[in-house]
Amino acid sequence: MGTEERDKVGAVLVVGGGIAGIQASLDLANAGFFVYLVEKEPAIGGVMPQLDKTFPTNDCSICIISPKLVDCANHRNIDILAPAEMIGLSGSPGRFTVKVREYARYIDPKKCTACGVCAQKCPKKVKDEFNLGLGWRKAAFVRYPQAVPLKYAIDKIHCIYFDKCTCRACEKLCPSQAVNLSQTDSDREVEVGAVILAPGFRPFDALQKPEYGYERYSNVLTSLEFERLLSATGPCGGKVKRPSDNAEPQKIAWIQCVGSRDASIGREYCSSICCMQATKQAMIAREHDPRVSATIFFLDLRAQGKGFDRYYERAREVHGVRSIRSMVSRVTQDPRTENLEITYVDEENGVISEEFDLVILSVGLISNPATRDLAALCGIATNRWGFAESPPFELVATDQPGIFACGAFQSPKDIPETVIQASAAAAAAFNLLKGARGNKIVATAYPVERDVSLEAPRIGVFVCHCGHNIASIVDVEALADYARSLPFVVYADHFTFTCATDSLENMRQVIEAESLNRIVVAACSPRTHEPLFRENLRQAGLNKYLFRMVNIRDQDAWVHQQVPEKATDKAKDLLNMGVARAALLEPLDETPFPVTRQALVVGGGLAGMTAALAIADSGFKVNLVEKGEELGGMARRLHYTLEGHRMQPHLDNLKHEMAYHPGIQVMTSTRVLDFSGHVGKFRSTVEGPRGQKEIEYGTVVIATGGAEYRPTEYLYGQHPGVLTQLELESTVEHDPAALPAEPRVVMIQCVGCREPEHLYCSRLCCGAAVKNAIKIKELRPRAQIFVLFRDMRTFGFKELFYQRARELGVQFCRYEVDRKPEVAAHGSRLQVSLFDQNLQAQLGLTADYLVLSAAVRPHPGSQEIAQVFKLPMDTDGFFLEAHMKLRPLDFATNGIFLCGLAHGPKYADEAIAQAQGAAARAMGVLAQTQMLVGGAVARVIREKCSRCLTCVRVCPFEVPAVGKAADAAYIDPAKCLGCGLCTGECPMGAIELMHHRENQLGAEIRAACA
Hints:
By secondary structure, the protein is an alpha/beta fold.
């Protein structure tokens, strides 16, 4: 290791505690770096805790972010500084000195137990900014119920003591003497090797659009304010009520593009999320009250994300959400009823007025005003709206080495893209500091595990309200009372959020005080929360397998909303089953094994090469397998981006680096034949020109890419003038002289997608059409170009290029799916006819070129890879991630990650960022020298085994083995994935699946039948 590497600091400063900052912090800390997480608010979480649900899964927002909040709070290598702010920066990449100002809480966090007495006794009420002023809090407060860190603070601006030097009730009554009114702000310096900026966004100030009546009419709210009305922890407890009279609104309208796509106020860009947020809110409002009539006023419906189009169609067809394409001119109020009248221009240019009880303004995303000072402090460039500027193909980089940006600070974006970029920023920091990894971390330590083998079961039951999700349907208090009557239960209680840090701490205290040796949590899904509770048991000194989770949300409250009494009865049955099984749970052992510290990347396109280089640059070996003869994938057909960057030089540079990188072995014309093992120790056989070869690796990145749809419509393949966008791009790049002096070009959007059989948006087609239209206009200014579209989905800053195309004279004509354009050949030219929805007239267009914006489809080889690695795929044939919002880079199988077009359609820079993010997740595995295996795996009862080989035949992972001299089958606990197929198929009953043994399952079944 060189002197320069030794001088680097193995710590990173992350500015911003929203989901981007949290994800980047966890990725870095799990990979061996110490993290200082700086957040200006008293608690981390950002905007996500303020949301009710998230689209398109409708998961409870606080529920899905809560495990990450708790992980941050409990991670020994993450130091949360909140409330705090970065105020100084000096040094150079690898060794920065950062000055941080920690603002006084006036409550000692080391003494605060979050009992809430200070807030209860505080006489001063103020508007609650977490609830956007719709509710009240005290001057002594905690930001939200699940806040991390869960420590109270005193609002100096509103505190009576700081205003009049009287009161001090909080100080006098605090049982832990945590209040310290003489506390002052303090500055500290920390040394870090890199800085990641993730300060998030702010909602647009709707007062800048006075025509909509915000704050003038009390029943006009912003979209974020409506989130708080929907939330169970909001000011109305999840009941949607009009602010003016607390009546339950029956007619609710959403107005889109408030503060977005609006040149009159200098906000020309699209905020990307508003259309889907409004769709979600309309659906949830109707779920709260089926009487609600929901109407969305919009310009272009931008459902460009994975699963978004299906979500929109479900809102329209199942939930009856009405969407009106229109221009809203104003909102006025009836002074008698305080109802609101919306005046708008419809598709037929008619001026219509309609009355509503409540109007929601879908406000755009703007950069956090404080980020301008932050950017100036760090010396990084921002655009005119205050978002960070990125170099070509490097979304998380800035113009200052060692300083990275991610999330909504880079551009407006949804949660999955934010999470992806956060991991990408972590990968960039990892690469910079690879030589310093581990030199600042603190080793994790757990208490000695208590031996409970000789103890009678003492079960503790923790019932979760899950905010509104469970408690609004199931009588959680009655459920806790019922739990106390069950055998072996010695403790039972209910909590607003069982996954909150205070609830987890309470659980640990109860385990010790009551000598509990089994824990049952009745809450949401084990898929998302079971690891969190198991980890909590480890911290309490219990074996993590002495835990049982009962899902009374997904399997009960959510599916029985109309019959709460029966839902409560069912919850009792489910809990009875869970307790019966928990009484028979046993502690299980896990054994350590050495991690194979090299990776496999499947796919050699843009994403695959980027992931391979990111992993290899961090010091780990990589095997890259590409089925084709050449690297590059679909990117070989791209020449320029919408922003004007050249693709082929970037691709050539990647190929050059791949060819000469000592840590990468490239295998082209090669297939993966099989797959076995487990995270940290996988094995595959690959077959290439030189025959078969076995490789071992600890983690794998799937980057199989995508393919352009080959159209069967619009005379494609029958007339030489019909091209796809990629074919047109090739013509413009390689033979621009072939274009006539005044070419007539017609482009048709959504060819092969947004159809019943392929109900998804290909995301990049609108940008491709705009890109090629602008390019032709630059080459042939007198060209006549018509783009026939359903919705123009130029989200984010891509909207600026849509505007540029219109300025250059490109004509955009909208059509409906039930009145598609018709094409006929007329000699060398083509005749296109369509009904223009805006003009309400039939148009006939003559074209030299008809250009089809063909869909992005999954790569044909993806299906084979899915079968080899046993990976799930979605309805459209793209790989299915573990969780659409917060685990967009992971598969459900640990140690396998995905990126690029294999995940779904995306732009080149997005594929690069996702590849870097997948590399970061993979490096989290490779950074470990050893991992644990065993636990809930299959075990052979030797005396029962007849060596019939049934287990060998049925196991999809080829784990069981029967040697010639063996008297029984053997299952390697390090390889077994615990699927249970062998257990169910064994004719002799000679295999048992630990943690799911016959007596445990039998007890659960008997309880269900009792």
